[in-house]
Amino acid sequence: MKRMYISEIKPSSKQVLVKGWVQRIKLLGKIAFVVLRDSTGILQCIAKKNIKEFSNITQESVVEIKGIVKKSKQAKKGHELEISDLKVINKSKAPLPADVEKSKTFIDKRLDYRFLDLRRPEIQAIFKIQSEIANSFREFFYKKGFTEIQPPSIISSSSEGGTELFPVKYFEKKAFLAQSPQLYKQMLTSSLERVFMITPVWRAEKHNTPRHLNESRQMDIEVAFANQFEVMKELEEAVKYIVKKVLEKCKSELELLNLKLKIPKAVYLSYEQAIKKVNGKLGEDFTPKQEKKLCEMYPDTIVFTHSWPVALKPFYIMPKDENIKSKISEGFDALFNGMEISSGGQRIHIPKLLIEMLKLKKLNPKNFTDYVNSFEYGSPYHAGWSIGLERFTMTLLKLNNIRECTFFPRDRTRLTP
Ligand code: ATP
Ligand code: MG
C-alpha cells in the first residue's frame, strides 16, 4: 500500500497507510487515542483492539499506521482513522528535552533542540513561508529574463570595507568568508546584464541583536543600464509579487501563525525628507527607533529612502551626477514593518571615480585592484540591491527575533547545532 500524506486524506479515503510522529497518545478505558502528525498535518487515530501494545509508545515516536477512515463528530476535521495495524519504526526517548507541543520553552532552549522545535506545525509554517519567499523571488526574476548566478563564498579581500570579516586559512594564503556578493554581481553586469542570486554571507559583527545574524542569506539583483530609481521599482514589484504568492500558496500556514497579510503599498522619500520626518539629524543614520517610527507613519508600506548622503553609503555607491564632490549619492534603503529590509543603489562604473572614492573613504585602492580593473574594459552603468532572506521573513511575519526564521542560527555565541 502506498503511503498517504495526512493532507491528502479525505473522509472518502477508506483504507490508508500513514507514517509520522506520535504527537499525543492517551488510553481511555478500552480505547487508545493517537494524534499522528506528519509534515502536512495532524490526524486523530483511534484503536479499539490490542490496547496494551499502545501503553509503551512514547511521545514523538515514529510510527506507521494502517487503518480505515471513518466519519467522526468528535474529530476536528470530521473524520478520524480507525487503526487496524500500528508499527513502531523508532521509539523516542522520554521525557523530551523541550516541549514540542507548545512554545513554553525559551528560544535558546528551543534552538538547542531545533530538530524537535521544528516538529511544531507553527514553526514549520514559518519555514514553509520562507521557502515560498525564496521561490517567488526566483520566479519573479526568471520571468523577467534575469540569470541566476553563483558567486564565490571565499574571497581574497574585503568586498565592502567596514564590516568585519571571518578569516579563512586558504593554503598558503589568507582569505575570508564573503560578506556580500557585491563585487561579483557587479562584474557580471558587463556580460549577462541582469543577474540575481540567493547566497549566504558572513559578517563578523560582534553585536548580538534580535535582527542580526553572523551568517545570513541575501537575495540580490544587479542590473546593467539602470539607476537607483529603476531598481527600487524592481524591489517594490518583487516584494509585492512575493507577498501575493505567499498569500496564495501559504493560506494554512498564515492561519496557523494567526497572520493577516496585505500586499504592501510603496512610498518614496528622499533621505532628507525622511530624516526630517522622524526629527533625526541631517547627515546621520536612522536609529532603530527612527526606522520604526517612519514605518509607523506608513503602515503596510515599503518605505524607500533614496539619495542618501555619500558619507553614509559604501564606497561603491555612485555620487550624484558622477561628481566626486557631491555630498548626495545614488544609494537607497528600503524599510518595512519597522526596520531596514534592503539597501541598494547605482554603483560607480568609472575606474577613476572609484579610486577617488576609495581614497575618500580611507580605503587602500591597492586592495581593490582586480575589482577596479574589471570596469576598465567596457562596463555599463549599473544598479542593484540586496534584501536579507531572514530579515524579510522576520518583518513580513512580524517575528520578534530573526532567529525564529533561521533554521540553525549563527550568532555571537551560537555555533551549534
Ligand atoms: P543593518 O543596518 O540592518 O545592520 P546593513 O545596512 O548593515 O543592515 P546591508 O549591508 O545593507 O546591511 O545588507 C543588505 C541587507 O541584508 C539588509 O538590508 C538586511 O536585510 C540584510 N542584513 C544585513 N546584515 C544582516 C545581518 N547581520 N543579519 C541578517 N540580515 C542582515
Ligand atoms: Mg543597509
CATH topology of the largest domain: BirA Bifunctional Protein, domain 2
* Whole-number tally of structural domains: 2
Number of helices: 11
Principal-axes geometry comes out as: elongated
Rg calculated over all Cα atoms? 26 Å
Identify every distinct bound molecule in the structure, by name, code or SMILES: adenosine-5'-triphosphate, magnesium ion
Instruction: Give the assembly state of these chains.
Output: single chain
Terminal CA distance reads 37 Å
Stretches with pLDDT under 50, minimum 5 residues: none
Which structural class should the secondary elements be placed in? alpha+beta
Taking all residues together, what is the mean pLDDT? 95
Largest sheet: 8 strands, mixed
Order of strands across the main sheet: 6-10-11-16-15-14-13-12
Superfamily at the CATH H level of the largest domain?
Answer: Bira Bifunctional Protein, Domain 2
The helix/strand series, from N terminus to C terminus, equals EEEEEHHHEEEEHEEHHEHHEEEHHEH
Quote the beta fraction: 25-35%
CATH architecture of the largest domain: 2-Layer Sandwich
Total strands: the figure is 16
Helix proportion of residues, in percent? Answer: 25-40%
CATH top level assignment of the largest domain = Alpha Beta
Overall description:
A hairpin with a 2-residue loop joins strand 1 (15-28) and strand 2. The mean pLDDT is 95. This protein has eleven helices and 16 strands. Helix 3 crosses helix 5. The strands form three sheets. Strands 6-10-11-16-15-14-13-12 form an eight-stranded mixed beta sheet, sandwiched between helices. It is 26% helix and 28% strand. It folds into two domains: 6-90, OB fold (Dihydrolipoamide Acetyltransferase, E2P) (Beta Barrel), CATH 2.40.50; 116-405, BirA Bifunctional Protein, domain 2 (2-Layer Sandwich). It has helices spanning 107-112, 114-117, 121-143, 182-188, 228-249, 251-256, 271-277, 288-297, 351-360, 369-373, 389-396; strands at 15-28, 31-38, 41-47, 62-71, 79-90, 147-148, 154-155, 167-170, 173-177, 194-202, 215-224, 265-270, 301-306, 331-336, 339-346, 382-388. It binds adenosine-5'-triphosphate and magnesium ion (MG). Magnesium ion is lined by residues 333, 340, 343.
